[in-house]
Amino acid sequence: MLTRQDLEALASQPENEHWYLSLYLNVDPVVNPRQEYVRQARLMVEKELERVRAAGAADKAQMRALEARGQALLDYLVLSRSVFKKGLIVFTSADGTQWREYHLAVPVSPLLVINRRPYLQPLAHIIDDHEACAVVLVDRRQARLFLIHLGELLAYHEESHPELPGKQKTGGWRAYEEGKWSRWVEKLVTLHLEDVVRILESLVAEKEVRRVVLGGPVEAVSQFKELLPPTLRALVVAEIEAELFRPGSDVVADALALMREVERRREDEIVKEMYDRMMSGSRAVAGFDDVLDAITQGKVYRLAVAAGLERPGYRCPGCGSLFTVARESCYLCGRQLEEDAHLTDLLVQQALNQGALIEVVRSDQPLLTELGGIAALLRFV
To answer: Cα 35 to chain center, whole Å?
Structure first.
């Protein structure tokens, strides 16, 4: 299960002399019936090796190691297709000591980057867009719980109490007896729903679920929601009318579509807050230079960056400081700066290492575009 902890672990790797190859590839067999992704990956490897060679960023020994690692990556694609799903992410160091691979049930945009550190911006985008979601379909007798993460069903639980009668016993009962029967039935229904709440609590705690969708008959969903503790109720992002026993594949597909809408609304709300704070001068900054300055000072609480935003810059190989313009040396440690084509990604990694929340926002979000494609909320001024 790919989580933010994986992202933070990759971002926190210490600076060293290793080069990394970061591969993102769509390996979905439906759109790659003849493994066209191998040819695509080969072209990306060749192009990126040529870029590094032309920039003179690596010496001859390092280039040989990168070429060998690129070939090893291509060999892996040819030999390992049986384990692929839809998306593949691989991070590997040029010396071969580091290798991490992630197989995803969602497609990823193809990209290969060779750099001093793993290239993490697309991974942050994927994790941000596909947070773990619990779907609870419930009625007065039965419930089904689904855990969906990164496009696939990871856990399923079914709770059933078929012995529960209907709302009220029919027949020649006196009004008093009918009321007593109804109260007994409602008590049993409440006990059933409380069981489902406990199962959901366990699922949320164990799998770090951040979003919950409730579905089923309106009355049952409303009653179930009332029984949720405040912490769980705060995670409910949508309520839908849904058939309890619809196919699991349909539940997953509908949940993914719903989560895309939820994520879009959440992005808009976050960017709107940043925009409003910028306009009022209240603990927010925007634009590359101001955001970089805030990160350098450890002020950033939440960072929003447009998907695919790239900007070259400079980094200090000694202390890791980042700069948008060339300098003779780092003003912190005196080391000579190195040019880096992926300053945005390095900035994201620094924010991660400081515990900042990262929001990779769709590239056409209008307010973020107006803010220069990058903005941040600050912990303090």
So the answer is: 27
CA dist., res. 315 & res. 321, Å (int) = 6
> Going by DSSP bridges, is the β-strand pair 322-323/313-315 parallel, antiparallel, or unpaired?
antiparallel
Q: Is residue 278 within a helix (H) or strand (E), and if so which, with residue range?
A: helix 248-280
d(CA 117, CA 12): 10
Mean pLDDT of all residues in the chain?
90
Number of independent structural domains in the chain: 2
Residue 375 inside a domain? The answer is: no
- Res 331 pLDDT > 90: no
Three-state secondary structure string covering 205-263: HHHCCCEEEEECCHHHHHHHHHHCCHHHHCCEEEEECCCCCCCHHHHHHHHHHHHHHHH
Cα–Cα dist 222/215, whole Å: 10
Instruction: Render pLDDT for 162-187 as a digit per residue (tens, 0 to 9).
Output: 666 555 545 444 554 566 767 777 88
pLDDT tens track for 92-123: 999 999 999 999 999 999 999 999 899 999 99
Is 171 found in the same domain as 108? no
Coil vs helix vs strand at 358: strand
Tokens of 367: 């307010």
Q: Check which CATH number belongs to the domain holding 216 and give it.
A: 3.30.420.60
Let me know whether 159 and 63 are in one domain: no
Cβ neighbours of residue 94 closer than 8 Å, sequence gap 6 or more: 18, 19, 20, 21, 62, 65, 66, 68, 69
Spatial neighbors of 329 by CB under 8 A, at least 6 apart, are 335, 336, 337
- DSSP 8-state symbol, 81: G
212 and 147 assigned to the same domain: yes
Phi, psi of 120 (to 5 degrees): -115, -10
User: What b/e sequence results for 284-310 when a residue is b if at least 16 CB atoms lie within 10 Å of its CB, and e otherwise?
Assistant: bbbebebbbebbbeebbbbbbbbbebe
Give the range of the structural domain holding residue 66, as residue numbers without chain letter.
19-115
Instruction: Quickly list DSSP for 163-174.
Output: T---SS--SS--
Scored b (16 or more CB within 10 A) or e, 326-344 reads eeeebeeeeeebeebbbbb
Record the pTM. Answer: 0.86
Q: How far, in Å, CA of 334 to CA of 328, rounded?
A: 9
Side-chain-side CA neighbours of 339 within 13 Å: the count stands at 10
Displacement of CA 334 from its chain's centroid (Å): 37
Give the amino acid at 304. Answer: A
